[in-house]
Amino acid sequence: MAGFENKNNGPRAFKLLSIALITTLICSQPITEASEPFAKFERTYTPRGPARLKIANTNGDIIVTTWNRKTIQVRAKAAPSVVIQDHVSGDDITISVKYDLRLGRADFEVFVPADTSVSIKNVMGSIDVQGVTGHVSVDSIDSDVRLAGVRGPSVDVKVTSGDISFDGELQGDGSYSLQTLKGDLDVTLPASASFNLVARALSENINLGAFLSSLTGASRGPKSITGTYLRGGPRLSLTTYTGRILLHKK
Predict the structure, then answer these.
(1) Less Cβ around it within 10 Å: N or C end of the chain?
(2) Which has more confidence, 217 or 134?
(3) Do the strands 235-240 and 175-182 form a parallel or antiparallel pair, or are they unpaired?
């Protein structure tokens, strides 16, 4: 019996050593990736006039904030698999995330002059735009959108699922459209704001607060309210299908 055991010690030892080596190789891969949890993207652009910035993302948060500089700075932290590309043509700046089947995450922090027009497309991730006086456009599938201190000539936000918050001012005869299929619309406007309103909520949950009593030419149905506040002018269109519409006066 002793001779039989010694005869098989060699192959058995080789097998155990092979398993150990394979295990070591497999385990070493996550450790290598963990040492680089994200890749960095950073660019600075110097437009000659009011810029038009477009950001197309797949998965991640986007924060756009104004500052007093004439430059635009874009920073992103992204998964190693994510490829971020940029293209500049005059004052048109486009930042795009190359589609990744793994939906790798890329979070953006952007600083712009106030007069920059901002266009954002995203699949999922929160979107925050602050202080912009240029045009604002947002198109996303799954995002909570917050617009604060926005005073642009037009705003267009479309979200499939997510809440939209707007706290800003309406200008001239501009169009301001906020639409979500599944989520709440929370809008705060100055008491001095003038606008023509179309509010539609299939959930029949529309609360215009202090604006309601001063709405002229008002037409109210079970799922919509239209009317003019003060002198009219800007067109304010609010649409939600399974959420609430809340209008606040400041």
Answers:
(1) N
(2) 134
(3) parallel
* Alpha-carbon span 119 to 108, nearest angstrom: 14
Query: Which two tokens mark 50?
Result: 């009011």
**pTM score:** 0.83
Token pair in block for residue 69: 């500089």
Nearest of 10, 3, 118 to residue 54 by alpha carbon: 118
What pLDDT is stored for residue 13 in this prediction? 42
Q: For the purposes of burial, counting CB atoms within 10 Å of the CB of 155, is it exposed (0-12), middle (13-18) or buried (19 or more)? A: buried
Q: Identify the band that residue 17 occupies on the pLDDT scale cut at 50, 70 and 90.
A: very low
Q: How far, CA to CA in Å, does 193 sit from each of 152, 189, 197, 231?
A: 14, 7, 12, 9
* Sign of the four-CA dihedral 160, 234, 196, 147: positive
Beta bridge partners of residue 248, listed in sequence order: 188
Identify whether the C-beta of residue 120 lies closer than 8 Å to the C-beta of residue 62.
yes
Give the whole-angstrom CA distance, residue 60 versus residue 57: 7
Amino acid sitting at position 228: T
CB atoms within 10 A of CB 192: 9
Q: So where are the chain's domains?
A: 31-152, 169-250
* Token digits of residue 41: 């993207």
